[in-house]
Design goal:
It is built from 7 helices and 8 strands; from the N terminus they run E-H-E-E-E-H-H-H-E-E-H-E-H-E-H. The chain has 195 residues and is α/β, with parallel strands linked by helices. It has one domain: L-arginine/glycine Amidinotransferase, Chain A (5-stranded Propeller). The two termini are 25 Å apart.
Length: 195
């Protein structure tokens, strides 16, 4: 099955407002670097055989480049997001004790990530089969992925970190997250969780 992902070129991307802890209008985004980084992510995904569909960028919508934020696809159903800035502004970049317990209960194999690499949004990754495409300069995470049987592809996406996003945020999996390689071969997540 060919992975299908929606991406939007960063024609109008920029830091025009501040709605999360990473955004800072005074830092701005370097347009040429953002384009180069987006193209490198696109090339990495198409190099893996992903069918990338493009959403036309629109003036006045600088965050349209983050297609993952549009909603989620579950089987043949699309669930659209409803954005409320106040709620998103309160999001915390830290996993708490309760969150770790929930993950440990429901995910049989967790790979811890160093705080510095988490701040580089290493976990904001795209999984295609047994390949994980993530932001650059996350060597410990890449090594841990390799030990766990995954291939790591690093793509520098620092211009998008300025808005609080990385590889995963720049993509919307049209074939649904259940098609990602972290599921077992049959795609039955329930069986994998019980084992």
């Amino acid at each position: 099955m060919t992975a299908r992902i929606l991406m939007c070129p960063p024609d109008h991307y920029g830091i025009e407002y501040e709605i999360n802890p990473w955004m800072n209008r005074s830092l701005g985004a370097v347009r040429e670097r953002a384009f180069a980084q987006w193209r490198n992510l696109h090339a990495a995904l198409t190099g893996l055989g992903v069918r990338v569909e493009r959403l036309d960028p629109r003036p006045g919508l600088p965050d349209l480049v983050f297609t993952a934020n549009a909603g989620l696809v579950y089987r043949d159903t699309f669930l659209s997001s409803r954005f409320k800035h106040e709620v998103r502004a309160k999001e915390s970049p830290v996993f708490d004790a309760y969150g770790r317990r929930v993950l440990a209960t429901h995910v049989p194999k967790l790979i811890p990530v160093a705080e510095a690499e988490a701040h580089r949004f290493g976990c904001n990754a795209v999984v295609v089969g047994k390949t994980v495409v993530h932001n650059s300069r996350c060597p410990a995470m890449a090594a841990d992925l390799k030990r766990a049987g995954y291939r790591s592809i690093e793509v520098e996406l620092d211009e998008f970190l300025k808005a609080g996003g990385s590889a995963k945020c720049l993509t919307l999996r049209l074939d649904g997250e259940d098609a990602a390689g972290w599921k077992n071969q049959t795609g039955d997540a329930r069986r994998e969780t019980r084992e």
